[in-house]
Design brief:
The chain is an alpha/beta fold. The chain is built from eleven helices and ten strands. It binds fe (ii) ion.
Length: about 300
């Protein structure tokens, strides 16, 4: 039997979808070697949830991680990372005191090119990003580090085209959904097993002053109650497998909570996964500077899907 041929002919698949918030605070609190700042801890509910999901990922066979990030914003089309390696220091522009991370990222360029081509063929303005000095955004780094601190899988980052800024959240929803469907087709054709990551918090109203000690948990709570109620509404729908409904109310949720869903990440991931009607795995929810952060995952395989929390 020709194993090469069978490998090429095998259909690729999305093996897991992860909602992975990226407050730099969680990397800061982990004290990895790559980050220059030092913390006494903090945000354990979120970090322990991430650790649990990272352990599940270790048990899954997959080739690459594809991340959609709100912190690589593009205004002409969607861009895909297009060089095999990016190595530099990422400094969070708002929290340089917390996040100065030395990264060394391997990219699955083949998969990136495939997604770029299929999206382009579908009429979505798409291009490869091949500037060797390009600085990887802290959203990609934080989500990937928390999900896979060993950094032993290649990554593709997809930029967020800001349709919500030019047009409206409704247009964003349509465009991000079309991109998700194109990426799913590309993954299928690639023959690879892929983990999707939507990198963002839920509600995103936040405090504008920082505690003298950022990890002082006596200062941490949701910004206001209405944000909490919105977040819990979404969590409830996710638990009940109502992802079509979540995406339908996404424009209103985004406007009411000024959420990072305005970039289209969750819409993209849910469209790629066919709007799951099975329960999401909930790993943890916690406020970071007042924003609502949920770690969750969608496992298409019923045999490995878990009731986590
Ligand atoms: Fe963010």
């Amino acid at each position: 039997m020709d194993f090469t041929a069978s490998r090429i002919m095998a259909k690729g698949e999305i093996v897991l979808g992860c909602l992975a918030p990226h407050p730099p605070h969680v990397v800061y609190a982990e004290n990895p070697d790559q980050n220059e700042a030092f913390a006494e801890g903090g945000w354990e509910t979120l970090r322990w949830g991430y650790h649990r999901l990272a352990r599940k990922l270790k048990s899954i066979e997959y080739d690459s991680i594809v991340v959609f990030t709100p912190h690589w914003q593009t205004y002409i089309g969607t861009h895909f990372l297009g060089l095999p390696q990016f190595k530099s220091k990422s400094v969070d522009p708002v929290f340089p005191n917390l996040f100065r991370f030395n990264y060394d990222i391997t990219v699955d360029v083949e998969l990136a090119e495939e997604m770029c081509k299929v999206a382009s063929d579908a009429g979505i303005i798409s291009m490869m990003m091949r500037n060797p000095d390009f600085r990887i955004d802290y959203g990609t780094i934080t989500s990937c580090h928390m999900l896979n601190p060993d950094w032993d899988k290649p990554v593709v980052t997809i930029s967020s085209n800001r349709n919500a800024h030019y047009y409206s959240p409704e247009v964003m929803n349509e465009q991000a959904g079309a991109l998700g469907e194109a990426c799913a087709r590309a993954i299928s054709e690639s023959g690879k097993k892929v983990v999707l990551v939507s990198s963002h918090s839920l509600s995103h109203r936040h405090f504008v002053t920082e505690a003298p000690l950022p990890e002082d948990m006596s200062r941490e709570h949701i910004y206001n109650h209405s944000q909490y109620v919105w977040d819990m509404k979404l969590v409830d729908l996710m638990r009940r497998g109502k992802m079509r409904e979540v995406i339908d109310i996404m424009p209103e949720f985004t406007e009411q909570t000024i959420a990072e869903t305005e970039a289209g990440g969750l819409t993209w991931m849910m469209a790629a996964m066919g709007h799951p009607d099975y329960p999401a795995e909930i790993y943890g929810y916690q406020s970071v500077i007042g924003t609502g952060n949920l770690v969750a995952a969608w496992d298409p395989r019923e045999s490995t899907r878990e009731l986590v929390l």
